[in-house]
Design brief:
With about 300 residues, the chain is mainly α. It has twelve helices and two strands. It has one domain. Helix 3 packs antiparallel against helix 4 and helix 5 packs across helix 10. The radius of gyration is 18 Å and the shape is globular.
Length: about 300
Amino acid sequence: MSWWILGGALTVGFVISLASVSLSIKISHRLEILDHPDSARKTQDRPIPKLGGLAVATAFSLVAVLALITLNSPGEVRLALSALVPALFAGLIGYLDDQHDLNPYARLGFQFLTGFLVWWLGSQVALFDNDWLNAVIVVAFVVVLINGLNLLDNSDGLAGSTVLMSGFGASVIAVISGQELVSVLGFALVGVCLGFLRYNWFPARVYLGDSGAYFLATLLAVLIIRMRPETVDPWTGVFIALLLVLLPITDTSYVIFKRLRRGIHPFTAGRDHLSHKIQGSGKRVPTSVFALQGLSLVGVLGAIALSLA
C-alpha cells in the first residue's frame, strides 16, 4: 500500500469535510436547527448548529465512493458497503433521536439492530465455535461503542478527536496487516475528523449531535472489527480492539459506576464525566480534551505494539 494513496485519502477526506461542515453550519442557521443553551447541561453561550453529523456522514460517504473508484477493485465494494450501510442506518437513528428524543428502550433496540446489521453484513469475529455467540460479541461491541462515544460527546472537540485517535491506530494496524481498503477508509476517517474539528474545536461552531456520534461510532466499530492483525491470536485481537477505544470505555465505566452508586439511572444526562471532573478543577476545555487524549494515545500505542508483538 502506497503512503501516497493513504495521504490522498486523508487529504481528500479533510477537504470534503471542511466544505460539508461549513455548508451545514449555514443551513443550520437558515433552518434554525440549533442546540440552545439551557444553563444546566448545555452551557454554551449561544445557540450552536447541530447538523455536523449529517455533514460528516456525507463527507465520509463521498470519500468512500472516490476510494472505490480510485482503487478500481470491484471485490472491495461489499467491504465498503458493510461499513457504510450500518453507519448510515445508525446516523439516521441518531438524527431521529436528535429531532424527537426517542424512548430509551426504542433507542437501545435500534442500537442492537445496528449491531446485528454490522454482523450480518460480514464484520464478524471467530472467538467461539458458536456463530451466535460470536454475533453477540459483535453486537455488544457496537452498542457499547455507540453509547460510549455519544456519552463522551460532552466537550468541544472531545468526540471528534477520540475517533481521530482510534481511527488512526486502527489504520496503522491495517497497513501493517496489508489490508488495503480498511487502511484507506481509516485514513479517510481521520481526514474527515480533522475537517470537522476545524469547526468543532473550542469554542465550537457546530456539534455532532446524536446522528454524528452514532455514525462515527458504528463506522469505527466496523473498521476495528475488520482489522486482522496477522501475528496475534483472536483473544489478543480483542484486547487490541479494547485498547483502541480505551477512552470511551473508561469514561463510560466511570460514569456508570458513579451513577449506580448514587442510585441514578446510568444513561441519565449529566455533567459527571471525566472531562467535567478535569474542567471542575479549573482547567479549560482544550486542556481537558488534550489530557484525555493522552489516555487515547496510550491505548493506541499499546494496540499497535501488541499487533507487532
